[in-house]
Write a structure and sequence with these properties.
Layout lengths: L1 E6 L4 E8 L4 E8 L9 H23 L8 E7 L3 H18 L3 E5 H13 L5 E5 L4 E7 L2 E7 L5 H11 L6 H9 L12 E2 L2 E2 L2 H12 L4 H27 L3 E5 L6 H13 L3 E3 L3 H4 L3 H13 L28
Parallel strand pairs: 1-4, 4-5, 6-11, 11-12
Antiparallel strand pairs: 1-2, 2-3, 6-7, 7-8, 9-10
Bound molecules: adenosine-5'-triphosphate (ATP) and fe (ii) ion.
């Protein structure tokens, strides 16, 4: 069985083609990069509308799969930016109708967990999902994926991007700060904002900019921000692990490509006798393959929707999404 999946929740338009063993047969992605400042939903959506048809072609070509060999079309139904979601859903509906294939809606956050779960071989891991818009600790419990902890203000990636632009850099900030931090030596004290299982970043943003205005060196600030922010994420992940009593952790989201974050989480998890896994970059960031794979699981469990009932859900909540393949 071969599923084509479409991702378009935020910056990235992506088409993945995956078989029943979670082998990624084809993957074609393109990220919208705003010329200045943050993401504008309508402009990102225009980017997706323009690029998705070509990405579908590229994914099919690289997978060496014909449309007749596709068994289902999956798309990210939410959560995400409305105009971006609608761009992907429209292409998915069109393909489903044109090819007479079932249409399968998928939750974007659940897809991050499922692709990491199958790649890692870990049966019931906790997910630390750290991306631009999202910062969440997610685990499966009693029939649903549940958000155990999350950011109370902005996503970690948006925080890093915003900070870097204010410090004179360009988007995306996360990888640039990672590089800059390698030359950092002094650890500046910054607000460490953990509230139970939740975190917050806006105080750190203000404090870092204030230090910069007083002349603190950028590499030192980058280093201090990384150490502080990633310690916070490691702490809430550890607290969630302690509550669950067993120790498998997977990472997802663009910020999970960060080497310092990976090594901090790995040290914590292994210190507790557990296992940590982070997917390769192309499957860690937003991608169509994770949507295709989760579409696979959902379709095998009987999920498909008629076009009339395939509206996107920008605020779709992870814990309201049924996951029958995990046994409800
Ligand atoms: P989502 O809809 O899931 O929030 P997104 O549009 O933010 O997704 P992703 O590709 O998951 O997309 O993540 C992009 C974010 O990851 C950006 O904020 C970027 O700065 C950050 N990022 C990418 N690489 C690194 C890195 N090496 N270190 C830290 N942050 C990184
Ligand atoms: Fe994501």
């Amino acid at each position: 069985m071969v599923v084509l999946g479409i991702e378009s929740t935020a910056h990235t338009a992506s088409v993945g083609i995956v078989d029943e063993r979670a082998e990624v047969l084809g993957l074609a992605s393109d990220m919208y990069r705003p010329p200045k400042g943050g993401i504008h939903p309508r402009e990102a959506a225009n980017h997706h509308v323009e690029l998705l048809p070509g990405l579908v072609e590229r994914a099919l070509e690289s997978a060496r799969v014909r449309p007749s060999e596709i068994d289902a079309v999956a798309f990210a139904q939410g959560p995400g930016l409305g105009p971006c979601l609608r761009a992907g859903a429209t292409v998915a509906r069109m393909l489903s109708l044109a090819w007479s294939k079932p249409l399968v809606p998928v939750n974007h956050c659940v897809a991050h967990v499922e692709i990491a779960r199958v790649l890692s071989g870990l049966d019931d891991p906790l997910l630390l999902y750290a991306s631009g818009g999202n910062t969440q600790v997610i685990a499966y419990a009693r029939g649903r994926y549940r958000v155990l902890g999350e950011t109370l203000d902005i996503g970690i990636g948006n925080f890093l991007d915003k900070l870097w632009i204010e410090l004179g850099g360009v988007f995306p900030g996360g990888p640039a700060i990672e590089k800059e931090a390698l030359a950092g030596q002094e650890l500046w004290p910054l607000p460490y904002s953990v509230h139970g299982m939740d975190v917050a970043f806006s105080g750190m943003l203000t404090a870092t900019l204030a230090l910069h205005a007083k002349g603190a060196a950028r590499p030192d600030l980058a280093y201090s921000v990384e150490v502080t922010a990633y310690s916070m994420l490691t702490e809430i992940t550890e607290r969630a692990l302690a509550h669950r009593g067993h120790g498998a952790v997977v990472l997802g989201g663009g910020v999970a490509c960060n080497e310092r974050l990976k090594s901090m989480v790995r040290a914590m998890v292994e210190g507790r006798g557990g296992t940590m896994y982070a997917p390769p970059r192309s499957l860690c960031v937003d991608n169509g393959a994770m949507i295709a794979w989760t579409g696979h699981l959902a379709h095998r469990a009987g999920r498909e929707v008629p076009v009339e009932a395939s509206a996107v859900e920008p605020r779709q909540r992870t814990d309201l999404v049924a996951t029958p393949w995990r046994g409800n």
